Amino acid sequence: MARSDQREGRGLQHEATPFADGSGRATQANAVPVDAELIAIAKLCLEIDPKDRPRDAGVLAERVTSYLTSVESRLRQAEVERATEAARAEEALQTAKQHELAASAERRARKLQMGLAAVVLCVLTVGGIAATWTAAEFPRTA
What we know:
The protein is mainly α and about 140 residues long. It contains four helices and no strands. Helix 3 (about 35-45) packs antiparallel against helix 4 (about 55-135).
């Protein structure tokens, strides 16, 4: 749209701007994540009608300061969430280690119990064999 059209009050029509790839689309620009609030501030500054733009640098500074404050707040919140998740992960790791140690101790106790049961069985078997052999070799004389 020509400048004369803008002056005559016909409004702004967006036309495709040719980019390096010749497609008229902002391929790389669209891939960059930008906060919607920052885009709104930039668009406000680029308004055609001066009445729609910030009236002075002080108003713009307030908006940018507000935006930066919100970004800092979100970053702090993300840091707190990340630290909380790290603490939960560490706690889960410690709990898993404790469970593993308890399971290991239980396995050792079970092995010891089975070993003692085997020793008792062997002693009873040897004792029974010895009693049978003694009874057969030395009959009771009464």
